[in-house]
């Protein structure tokens, strides 16, 4: 059986965690918000690398053709299904014929939908209105327990608390790892004021406006790195997943991976402020972030195990 994309919204993609997992015919280089992708999968009991549906700014309207368990994560979107409110980072049982429709929100850019047992699509992974996405039904014993638990209430009474994700998504401060060949004056200038997102070239780059950075134009080719901060027309250009592999725009530093989650959630008008750090600090922060994600996923497993024990009593 499948789910049906009734309205594909602005851009809807069946997305893998990394581009290496994509099959022939698939487009785009992995989930922009890796944390949201993994968190949605963790909630429904999937492997965290299982495909999810990535929706940008204006999410899809989705109809389900059989009972299944869903969760979505990422931006601060809310949704509804008939008269039922559906909240982010929670687990729900959907029945045959149920429709999931997202409610427009003033903040956030991307949301990721996971379905228990996994998803797959034949052909292009860019989903259009009317497309069907196959529910793989690769159910584990854990999935069976979740189905049995949710038959009574259709949802659990808890979710991942918004405050647990404040540092990940709500702060406008972004670490910028300095390069040894860039002058301190450039970094002082980058830190001197706030930048505003002018627009996003879809999944390629964020263009921002703020204090000007004059580096000149040497016309030298540079590697395009995800998270790279390049200078074009005296303004920073922030590289996203599908940034050019080679560019002549000079790179002044890199935003570490632990801040790329919230970077992918910035929409036009959002604010960004840079904080320059050394590579050693970035490595320490990355390790701390890794431990935090592990503790978050363990907390989800613990809460679910308590719910399942209560159900059996």
Structural notes for this entry:
The protein has about 325 residues and is of the alpha+beta class. It has two domains: about 1-165 and about 300-310, no CATH class; about 170-275, Cyclophilin. Helix content is about 25%, strand content about 35%. The protein contains six helices and 23 strands. The protein has helices at about 35-45, 140-155, 165-170, 185-190, 260-265, 280-310, and strands spanning about 1-5, 10-15, 50-55, 60-65, 70-75, 80, 85, 90-95, 100-105, 110-115, 120, 125, 130-135, 155-160, 175-180, 195-200, 205-210, 220-225, 230, 235-240, 245, 250-255, 270-275. The strands form four sheets. A seven-stranded antiparallel sheet has the order 7-6-9-4-1-13-11, with no helix packed on it. A hairpin with a 2-residue loop joins strand 6 and strand 7 (about 85). Helix 1 (about 35-45) runs parallel beside helix 6. The longest helix has about 35 residues, at about 280-310. It is elongated.
